[in-house]
Fold:
Amino acid sequence: MKALFDQISDKTSSMVTRSYSTSFSLGILFLDRALHKHIYAVYGFVRFADEIVDTFHDYDKAYLLEDFKRQTYEAIDQGISLNPILNSFQETVNKFSIDRELIETFLQSMEMDLNPDREYDQQTYENYILGSAEVVGLMCLKVFCYGDQSQYDALKYNAMKLGSAFQKINFLRDLKADYKELGRTYFPGVNLTKFNDLTKAEIEEDIEKDFKAGFEGIVQLPKKARFGVYVAYVYYYALFRKIKSTPSSVILNQRIRIPNRNKYGLLVSSYLRHSFNIL
Structure:
């Protein structure tokens, strides 16, 4: 029974999301239930691609990524895959007519990560953020708008900026791992051997602008998606505030986190703001 296999595929994407990201999982829980499996599917897809380039160091990552890419398009064309992650993803792609250009742009950013010695200028930095974060936000927006193209077009810019803010915060949070363990430096024109509070503040000012545009889009989202996205926004903004208050020397040597107990506190405050229409 294919229905059973589809259920297993959906559960696999959910398990992957819950295993890799507590904060993202919390946000999904507060979306309308009809959206859950589709956002899990998007996250499962991008998470597996990211794992190939970030952790499979003892294997031929270029081959694995190319094979994953081939299987992805084959799954979308055939409407099925024996890879449960790709099976759930193709269902979402086909149901919501997610543009292949978004998928291709994302996979191109993963290919960029295959070269740890790459030096980013402003253009390649923007291209990477577009592929690794902004188009992922657009995939999710396709689901949130449930086929309403005019609504999608109206919120496209804001969704991209919110994804950009999240990714840039990830860059700051993971500065130690990216630079010292993977040999990557994403911020253009930044010499991490001379990373200081002034450079950090300039990056944070850029992130603040993205957050503002992203929030303007959240309040316009369909009700079934608004609170879940707001929860993710609140978590990332709290992480952003913590990073802002942390010296550059610490950021370079320590991964900044929000403890789980604090995440649940943020969830409660977000719910209260939402309930009283403060959002």
Summary: The two ends are 44 Å apart (CA to CA). DSSP finds 13 helices and no strands in the chain. The CA atoms of residues 120 and 188 lie 5 Å apart.
